[in-house]
Amino acid sequence: MAKPRVLQLIGNLHAAGSERQAAQLAQSLHESKQFDVSVACMDPRGTLGEELRQAGFSEIPSFRLNSFYDHTMVLSLRRFALFLNEQKIDVIHTHDFYTNVFGMAGSWLAGVPVRIASRRETTGWRTPAQKFVERRAYQLAHAIVANAEAVSTHLATEGVRKEKIVTIYNGLNLRRVTPQYDWHEAFKMLNVSSNGHHPLVTIVANLLHPVKDYPTFLRAAQLVHRDLPETRFIVAGEGPLKEQMTALAQELGLESCVYFIGRCELVAELLSISDVCVLSSIAEGFSNSIIEYMGAGRPVVATDVGGAREAVIEGETGYMVQPRNYQTMAARILELLRNPERARAMGKYGRQVVESKFSCAAQLSRTVELYGRLLERVKMKSASAGRYFLFTLCVISVLGS
Rounded to two decimals, what is the model's pTM? Predict the structure, then answer.
């Protein structure tokens, strides 16, 4: 009997949160040998392409779009639908806003039996038109995977039927947080001074959008540095906000103790030399950084947003603070730095939580169960929703022309 053919549609091949999770899931499904798995993308740029090819995905077709709101959308949808038919895809799984809209429309046109969309955030920055189109895309899906209960709850408040929503937590491949280099080599490779064995406080988050709220982290750092001047702070991330955050660090008198190291390929090494790890976001779905911190055995201080509380156990694997409350964030960081034995115990327990709840194996098991259940009860009852969705796209195309 032929294996069900599954397609993972990824937005791009950059090693960001959603894209890495999608690529990792594709590899896990492939290695399970329960499905015939393939990967496609909308933008072929990024380092994940080589990683996927090494994992056995020799061809990764791309379906690039200039815009959802012009004639190229129709041409690309037609090409995508033909591809899905030729490949005889049984299950399509999309992973973000753009792949949800494009993938659900194209797979509906192709008559793909099982269509699964995803949601990874509780709040977004979509225009009203984009939100409207995404809701129509969800109507075409047989299930919407949320990566936290907080995201599931938010979807329900937006009007998505509860029976369609499935929570599957992000998975962490623990190899990603297992260092290959020793402590001294890690400092050297990361270009961070180890003189005096300074305590290190680390944040891993991109510098693309204010939602990561680096100002709160830097103001907390100022208070920590005032009480423990030997402390150093590492900012791992790249993006257009770097110049602004570097200027803020200088304004706060932190230019000698904050390292902006840019995008970090040595995540395991970075976490291995860190004493406390921080997330300062004002909004999240479910943070990959938090489970990487915990998987590396590090105590966490994180803002209480999205699904953070579903990962961090207050007082046992770390501490939760309210968004923008840099005073409490600083107090919690100081508490951990002053009690290294307690910090190590919290980190050790955090690793155990990741192994049991946020492993790749747990993510794979839940995903395989979802695919199997939907394949068993395929029902093609979405024709009216599909016509409405395509009508919406046509109207927006006209309005945008």
Answer: 0.84
